[in-house]
Amino acid sequence: MKKIAFIGLGVMGFPMAGHLQKAGFDVTVYNRTKQKAEKWCEVYGGKHASTPRKASEGADCVLLCVGNDDDVRSVVYGDDGVLAGCQTGAFVVDHTTASAELARELGAALARHSVNFLDAPVSGGQAGAENGALTVMIGGSEAHVESVRSVLSCYSKFIGWQGEIGTGQLAKMVNQICIAGVVQGLAEGMQFIERAGLDPKKVIESISQGAAGSWQMVNRWETMAQNKYDFGFAVDWMRKDLGLALSEANRNGARLPLTALVDQFYADVQANGGGRYDTSSLLTRFKK
C-alpha cells in the first residue's frame, strides 16, 4: 500500500486523509467542493483530482467518506466514478455510515471488476478523526482487512473485523442505537441536576467514576451545562444514522422502542432549528 485516494473531505475525511499524508503515503484527494480539496493540499501537501475516477487511477487503496447511500453511489459509479478508475486488485474501503444493503451492492459490483471491497464505518467523531483515534468496524474478507491495516491504523485506535460484507454497517447501527439511549439518559440527568439545585461539576465528578459513567458524560456534561451545542456530531447526521438502524430493524425483526423514541426527540430538536447542533442538544427539549 503506497498510493492512496481519499474521496470526501468533510469534518471527518479532511483530518483522516491528513494522517495518511503525514504517515508518508502518496495521497490524492477528491472533494465535490474543489476549494476544500485545494485547502487540504495547502495544509497537508499531496494532490487533488478533478473527479473520483482520476483520484483513483493507479491507487492501491481508495477510501470513501461521504454523506449517505446516494452520495456513495454518486462517487463510485459512472464514467467519472471510482470504479471506472480502479485498477485490478485495488481495495475500496467505505468509511461512510450507510446501509448494509449498499455495502452488499458495492461488494458485488466491485467484485465483477476484480476490485476488493470493505465496508468500514467509523466511530469517534471529529475529535477522534483529528486525533487519529477512531474505532473502525469492518465487514468483508478478514484477509483483506489485514491488507489495508497499515492504512487504517494511521487514523484509528481500534480496527474490529465483524464478518462478511455489510456487517461493518450493522455494527455501526448498534453503536448509534447505544449512543442514542445514553445521551437521552444524560439529558434527563442534567435536567434533574438543575431542577434539584445540585452542582453539576460535583455530581458528574462523583457518578462518572461508577456504573453511570460514559464517554458522553465525561465529554459533554460541561457544554450541556453551559447550553453550548455548536460543535460535534450533528443531529441531522444522527437522525440519518438512526433511520438506517430503524429500517434495518424493520427487516430483521429487532424491536427498538427507545431508539424510535429518541429519534423523535431529535426530530423535535431539528424542528426548533438545531439540526446542526451536537447530539447532546437533547437537553434543549427541557429548556422550553
Task: Explain the overall architecture.
This protein has 13 helices and nine strands. With 288 residues, the chain is an alpha/beta fold. The chain has two domains: 162 residues, Rossmann fold (3-Layer(aba) Sandwich), CATH 3.40.50; 117 residues, N-(1-d-carboxylethyl)-l-norvaline Dehydrogenase, domain 2 (Orthogonal Bundle), CATH 1.10.1040. The strands form two sheets. A six-stranded parallel β-sheet has the order 3-2-1-4-5-6, sandwiched between helices. Strands 7-8-9 form a three-stranded mixed β-sheet. Helix 9 packs across helix 12 and helix 9 crosses helix 13.
In the CATH classification, which architecture of the largest domain applies?
3-Layer(aba) Sandwich
Order of helices and strands: EHEHEHEHHEHEEHEHEHHHHH
Contiguous uncertain segments of 5+ residues: none
Strand order, sheet with most strands: 3-2-1-4-5-6
The CATH superfamily of the largest domain appears as NAD(P)-binding Rossmann-like Domain
| Rounded Rg | 20 Å
Name the descriptors.
13 helices; alpha/beta; 288 residues; Rossmann fold; N-(1-d-carboxylethyl)-l-norvaline Dehydrogenase, domain 2; single chain; three-stranded mixed sheet; 2 domains; six-stranded parallel sheet
Summarize the structure.
Helices cover about 50% and strands about 15% of the residues. It is of the alpha/beta class and about 290 residues long. The protein has two domains: about 5-165, 3-Layer(aba) Sandwich (Rossmann fold), CATH 3.40.50.720; about 170-285, N-(1-d-carboxylethyl)-l-norvaline Dehydrogenase, domain 2, CATH 1.10.1040.10.
